[in-house]
Every structure is written in C-alpha cells, then in structure tokens.
Specification:
The protein has a 3-stranded mixed sheet with strand order 1-3-2. It contains 9 helices and 3 strands. The protein has 2 domains: 7-108, 2-Layer Sandwich (Zincin-like), CATH 3.30.2010; 109-216, no CATH class. With 216 residues, it is mainly α. Strand 2 and strand 3 (68-72) form a beta hairpin. The longest helix has 21 residues, at 88-108. The protein binds zinc ion. Zinc ion (ZN) binds next to helix 4 and helix 5.
Length: 216
C-alpha cells in the first residue's frame, strides 16, 4: 500500500503537542529531545484500516507505533467513528494519550503487560479520567492482561490514578520499567505483590477505591 503524506503548519495542534511533550517528559522523567514523536492526522476510516492492515472497530480513533502517533482528523469523528464530536480539550487529551504510549514504551523497552496497565497509564497521564464515570467497584479491568478491547478503558485509568496517589509515581514507573518481561500473568502478580504489598485482585483494588478521599 502506498501513502502520500503532507506536512502542515498547525499552530493549534503544535501547541497541544508541545504541552503534552513537556508534561509527559516531566511525568516519565525522560528528557526526550531527538527523533521526537510524529503526530500524524489520519483522514478517514479507510486510511485507518489501511495503516492497521485490517478492518478496525469504529471506536478506534488513535494509536501509537514507536514514535509515530496517529489520530483521526477531529472534523471526521461523527462520520468516521462511533465517538461523538470531540471538543478541543478532548482531542488534546486523545493526542496526549497516544503520545503517552510512546513514552511508556521507551521506559518499558518493549510491550507493556498487563494491557490494563498500558491503557490505564495513557488514560491517567492524559487526564482522560474526566471523560469516564468513576467506578464504584472495579470488576472487569483484570480481564485485560493480554487482550485488548473497548472494555479496558472504563476502569484502567482509575486503577493507575489510585496507585500513583497511594503509592507514589516512582513505584508505578518502576513497575512499567519491568513490565515488558511479564510474559505470563503469574510473573506480573509476583512482582506486583512484592512491590505494592498486596495481591492484584479486585478485592484489594476495591479497598483502595473506597479509602480514597472523594475530592477529585
Ligand atoms: Zn491507548
């Protein structure tokens, strides 16, 4: 497949990109200055499918591949996806979400497992938790160790938020750094328990959910 790329000057998106880059460098403790992520705006579903190499679900509106970050053109959301039209703020969070994946991949030196940690980190660091209702109970994110899917997005960002708030960012970053070595779920569980002193099961995560002060 052949693609034709046009570069463009877009002051509004450049400023969104610059802010995200600065804030993500700060969060991840990385000083990324060369071969910076490239933001690629994709025109429609047909091009998303062609770049993916398969038919994609209508909720797929962005992804990252090493230092290339792809997002669907904001003007095409209602026509080319099942998302409502995003506000500028929501679109900025989407771009930051995808850029966050590029940062976490660098830190991990490979593919992050579990998948809920990979997505939760991107949701939390991009501020997208405001787009989801805070769950009263965690009951599905643990299904997403290897598998992906729309269902991972509702809880994962809150799990990561709680871990960062209760245990500090560094402990979460230390988990990310070894997360590409967790080929099997029991290896993840062992490391997690040693590091956070509790078993990564719903019951324990739900205790943390209910302890947390209600102020956002
Ligand atoms: Zn993501």
């Amino acid at each position: 497949m052949i693609y034709r790329i046009n570069s463009e000057i877009n002051k509004k998106l450049q400023s969104v990109y610059n802010t995200a880059l600065r804030e993500l460098n700060e969060f991840y403790g990385i000083h990324w200055v060369r071969n910076l992520p490239r933001l690629i705006i994709v025109n429609d579903r047909k091009d998303i499918d062609a770049l993916f190499g398969r038919k994609t679900e209508s909720w797929v509106i962005g992804w990252s591949e090493n230092n290339n970050v792809y997002v669907l053109d904001k003007a095409k959301f209602s026509k080319e996806s099942d998302h409502k039209q995003y506000s500028d703020e929501e679109y900025a969070m989407l771009i930051k979400h995808e850029m966050s994946h590029s940062f976490s991949s660098i830190l991990a030196g490979g593919n992050i497992k579990p998948n809920w940690l990979w997505e939760g980190l991107a949701i939390y660091t991009s501020g997208q938790n405001v787009m989801h209702t805070r769950p009263t109970e965690f009951k599905k994110f643990l299904e997403y160790f290897d598998k992906g899917g729309k269902g991972v997005y509702s809880e994962a960002g809150f799990v990561v938020q709680i871990l960062v708030e209760k245990y500090g960012k560094q402990k979460v970053l230390d988990l990310i750094k070894v997360s590409s070595t967790f080929k099997a779920e029991d290896k993840f569980r062992q490391f997690f328990k040693k590091s956070f002193s509790f078993d990564p099961i719903y019951e324990e995560f739900n205790k943390l959910l209910s302890d947390r002060p209600t102020a956002e």
